[in-house]
Amino acid sequence: AQSVAQPEDQVNVAEGNPLTVKCTYSVSGNPYLFWYVQYPNRGLQFLLKYITGDNLVKGSYGFEAEFNKSQTSFHLKKPSALVSDSALYFCAVRDQEGGSYIPTFGRGTSLIVHP
Amino acid sequence: NAGVTQTPKFQVLKTGQSMTLQCAQDMNHEYMSWYRQDPGMGLRLIHYSVGAGITDQGEVPNGYNVSRSTTEDFPLRLLSAAPSQTSVYFCASSYYPEGTGELFFGEGSRLTVL
Description:
Number of helices of chain B: 0
Strand content of chain A: over 45%
Number of strands of chain A: 12
Strand content of chain B: over 45%
Helix content of chain B: under 10%
Largest interface: A-B, 24 and 25 residues
Structural class of chain B: mainly beta
Oligomer: heterodimer
């Protein structure tokens, strides 16, 4: 079975400060991990993914995420937040074992960047 | 390149009415799926398909029907609409069936059932 948790419903950060949106996962085998962003009244957009290799993954809009196997985490980070980063962020996981095509999504974290 | 196209964007139904939400993708993706998004509930999978002629149920399939006659299209049918089906619906597709590919989402269809 696969599951993902986003422990914070909302994250508040001042513009220019670093931001972190947390994600932890549980899988039977090795994970495929994804981050998506949803702006108001829009569909989800892919930000970045971890499949294998380097634990630090860089994605769109200056975001990056670090895969930590021992802590089963995949936190999303950005060195300097912008007001335009304010959106809903979703973490998702697919288990490499079992051959499932279906990702499991977290409940989402609302990021609010204050001017 | 249109990506994933959903229609209609907005729809109001009366209880008991039926309708079809359309989803089309032009990326030759094998995997397609339908989600509903409700406040505080995240994304919940309704139905999915791994290729033409193949569909399966997700987490919340009751009251919905799907078919996949072509690779491009994956319509979602509401058989007899209920107020509990008021939601925002998203269609998503993926290129790599082995699970490494990211999902491409449509812009959503906002449905209100009165």
